Amino acid sequence: MTEPEAAAARGRWGEIAATGYLQSCGHRILQNNYKRRTGEVDIISMDGDVIVCTEVKTWFGAGSDDLSRAVSPAKQRRICKTAAVFLLENPRYAGCGVRFDIILIGKDTGISHFSDAFQGAG
């Protein structure tokens, strides 16, 4: 397996683990890997009456503490724009609040969930 293939497999595994984690926290999963021209949101879920757009980062190497830096301001803007497209395509959620979370999954650190990790100012 090439490194890009291994990285993609780690990412898929992490997104599956994060989906299960969010479900165990009471989230209702609406969409996984929601992709549009504006970007991708790894997981879109409902937490009560709030739409939660979650970016998942999976890391099996050293230094996973710094992984939160991998969600750059540019990546945050793409996630926000893609969330706006989701809301336009799904008007039944128009009155819901929106929150942006990050889940980091490290080989040695397990799951770290950062709720309301950044603001949605696309």
Count the DSSP helices. 2
Helix content: 25-40%
Low-confidence sequence ranges: none
Return Rg in Å.
14 Å
Oligomeric state of this protein: single chain
CATH fold title: Trna Endonuclease, Chain: A, domain 1
Sheet having the most strands: 5 strands, mixed
Q: Give the name of the CATH architecture.
A: 3-Layer(aba) Sandwich
Protein name: UPF0102 protein Spiaf_1220
InterPro entries: Restrct_endonuc-II-like, tRNA_endonuc-like_dom_sf, UPF0102_YraN-like
Pfam family, one: UPF0102
Family: Belongs to the UPF0102 family.
Structure characterization notes:
It is built from two helices and five strands; from the N terminus they run H-E-E-E-H-E-E. It has helices at 3-24, 73-89; strands spanning 28-36, 39-47, 50-59, 97-106, 110-118. By secondary structure, the protein is an alpha+beta fold. It has a five-stranded mixed β-sheet with strand order 1-2-3-4-5. A hairpin with a 2-residue loop joins strand 1 and strand 2 (39-47). It has one domain (3-118): 3-Layer(aba) Sandwich (Trna Endonuclease, Chain: A, domain 1), CATH 3.40.1350. The longest helix has 22 residues, at 3-24. Keywords: Endonuclease, Hydrolase, Nuclease. This is UPF0102 protein Spiaf_1220.
Give a short overview:
The protein is an alpha+beta fold and 122 residues long. The protein has 2 helices and 5 strands, in the order αβββαββ.
